[in-house]
Amino acid sequence: MCGIIGCVGVTNSKQVLLEGLKTLEYRGYDSSGIAIFNKDNVNIVKAVGKLSQLQKKVNNQEMLGSHGIAHTRWATHGKVTEENAHPHIVGSISIVHNGIIENYRKLKTELLKDGVVFKSETDTEVIAHLLNNYYEKEKSLLQAVKKVKSVLQGSFALLVSSVKEPQTLVALKSGPPLLFARSNESYFFSSDSLAFQNYATEFFPLEDGDIIEVKKDKFSLLRDKNKNENKSKNENKNENENEIIDQKNLIWIKVSKDQYSLSKQSYKHFMLKEIFEQPQVSVQAISPYIDQVKMELLLPCKDLQQKIKKTKKIFIIACGTSFYAAMEAKYYIEKAAGVSVEVDTASEFRYRHTPIDQDDLVLLISQSGETADTLSVLRSLKEKEISVISLCNTKSSSIDRLSDFSYYMNAGVEVAVASTKAFVNSLIILNIFSEQIAKIKNKLTTTDEKDFVASMLSLPRLLGEVLDFSIAIKDKVEFLSKHKGFLFMGRGFSFPISMEGALKLKELVYLHAEAYSFGEMKHGPLALIDKNMLVIALVPKDEFYEKSLSNLEEVRSRGASIFGIGSYQDKELARLSTEHFFLPKITESFCWSLNPILASLPMQLLAYYFSDYLGHDVDQPRNLAKSVTVE
Ligand code: AGP
């Protein structure tokens, strides 16, 4: 977690860094700090709380300088205090750090024995002391960083400067994402390309082990010589094992400005804006995979088709909301293509001893493309030479780059910590993926293919129709607020959406919410039912409808309130529910695949309006960060 940014050779580094931090705030938002270097001086300002606190402090300060580093923190070691906020400064050294130093206790004990006094509780300060010691001996920032690289274990991205080397910034990456960008003679580093999108023209992502030294208007890149020799990331490396990379061999990526990015427009929150963007961004999910003239599904590249043809089993691995999208994919793929699917969270899967066959397919889902657990699964699969498909929103993210085949959510940048449009676009792509598998395995008739394509093409309009009735959800917030506990229930295709609904409520409203499949109700959760419990029931008219209605009767007779979400003008559901919300009228034959996608929106709106009603920080819920880059 945490966001880091640095620049050299810009006219107003304070503005560049603060703008960049704003875009990185999703990575952590408990405190922040900035250091601007001017000749042999450094001016450091830190603040606890949201970035606005730092902005307030620096507004009154003249911080001149064309070179600086900055940080937005999600606390891992030590409380949220100014002392623990970055940048950390020791002697001439200033440093910002994203990640975790696993051997920091051992290193700190050694430093304490040498009489070092620590000002903070962070693992980062240990790095700063080490760098300062090495710098005193080596008199070179680059040599000091090379040396520190050989003693640190864990996962880290560092930006380091010294007041003794003006206009010099050294970066080291081993784990978390770090991008290097340039424009004429200005250079930038950041955890995300959004942070420099207004200033840089091109960038490339650093590889693990890379060190870059920027000195005024020049840079050099040092890369591990033994990159492909299967050395463990944490194995100590001799600092002479780097080689300078010829800059002609670097592949630069053009910085693209995201049309969906950084303004809330007229919306109160990014989350609301992102919910309302869904009809528009769903088009971007659908169109790359559909020939609208022939009404046909487009297939993936020949290599992937061959793999799909052979496969009998698919593993889908992800975390959080992406995991619930994976759960939905299981229902889609098993119904559409008859291929068995196993789904797991990356944090569990990475430590399981799951047998995987060379012919099995593995799909990883990650909005950010940087989630630590998912990335670790990818790395261990690569070691076993198992090919991996990824579904990411962030192009050129670590998971996207390291996977063999890429699908994209194409949802545009998602700023709110709670995922909405990336989830819905994932469901759309996974639905399409399931029908692609069916087509490749000759299980999709031409008529069904045309019907499926028609269903997909109707989605943007249907999503818009759900949003047209968002006010109906807003009006139910007072009713929601009368309850202390929430059970989200659904069967079959609706069950993963119930799970996602419960997660949205937990992360935004901070009340207890759980999801159960209706079929599990009698095996325990029914005991929870009383008048304080609200059952949010997803009951669209699908193959599970009658069974779900019977379960709902059982819930009702035990005194729970029911918020029913179901198909257009379903009188029976309305009769059983205390409150209800109907999805729009669907005429397409693939309504079983459209229902879960459409039902996701009332789940999002419900959590959004409820959270706002309670006065919570909707876009940046407590204790969370958008990109979970530590385990
Ligand atoms: C979603 O609302 C959450 N903030 C969280 O569960 C998220 O989906 C999870 O951390 C996985 O992130 P990823 O998709 O970027 O890998």
Would you kindly provide a written description of the structure presented here, covering whatever features stand out?
By secondary structure, the protein is an alpha/beta fold. The protein has three domains: 3-254, Aminohydrolase, N-terminal nucleophile (Ntn) domain (Glutamine Phosphoribosylpyrophosphate, subunit 1, domain 1), CATH 3.60.20; 263-466, 3-Layer(aba) Sandwich (Rossmann fold), CATH 3.40.50.10490; 469-619, 3-Layer(aba) Sandwich (Rossmann fold), CATH 3.40.50. The protein is 36% helix and 23% strand. The chain is built from 20 helices and 27 strands. The protein has an eight-stranded antiparallel sheet with strand order 3-2-4-1-10-9-11-15, with helices on one face. The chain has a seven-stranded antiparallel sheet with strand order 5-6-7-8-12-13-14. The chain has a five-stranded parallel sheet with strand order 19-18-20-21-22, with helices on both faces. Helix 9 (320-337) packs parallel to helix 13 (421-440). The chain is globular. The structure holds 2-deoxy-2-amino glucitol-6-phosphate. 2-deoxy-2-amino glucitol-6-phosphate is lined by residues 319-322, 366-368, 371, 374, 417-419, 507, 628.
Short description:
With about 625 residues, the protein is of the alpha/beta class.
Features:
eight-stranded antiparallel sheet, Glutamine Phosphoribosylpyrophosphate, subunit 1, domain 1, 20 helices, 3 domains, 631 residues, binds 2-deoxy-2-amino glucitol-6-phosphate, alpha/beta, seven-stranded antiparallel sheet, Rossmann fold, globular
Describe how the helices and strands are arranged.
Blueprint: E1 3-8, H1 13-24, E2 31-38, E3 41-48, H2 51-59, E4 67-73, E5 88-90, E6 93-101, H3 104-113, H4 124-138, H5 141-151, E7 154-162, E8 168-174, E9 179-183, E10 186-190, E11 202-205, E12 211-215, E13 218-224, E14 242-244, E15 253-254, H6 270-276, H7 278-286, E16 290-291, E17 296-297, H8 302-310, E18 313-318, H9 320-337, E19 340-345, H10 346-349, E20 361-366, H11 372-383, E21 388-392, H12 398-402, E22 405-408, H13 421-440, H14 446-468, H15 470-474, H16 477-480, E23 485-490, H17 494-509, E24 512-517, E25 533-539, H18 545-556, E26 561-566, H19 571-576, E27 579-582, H20 591-613
Parallel strand pairs: 18-19, 18-20, 20-21, 21-22, 23-24, 23-25, 25-26, 26-27
Antiparallel strand pairs: 1-4, 1-10, 2-3, 2-4, 5-6, 6-7, 7-8, 8-12, 9-10, 9-11, 11-15, 12-13, 13-14, 16-17
Helix pairs in contact: 3-4, 4-5, 7-13, 7-14, 9-13, 9-17, 13-20, 14-20, 17-20
The chain binds 2-deoxy-2-amino glucitol-6-phosphate.
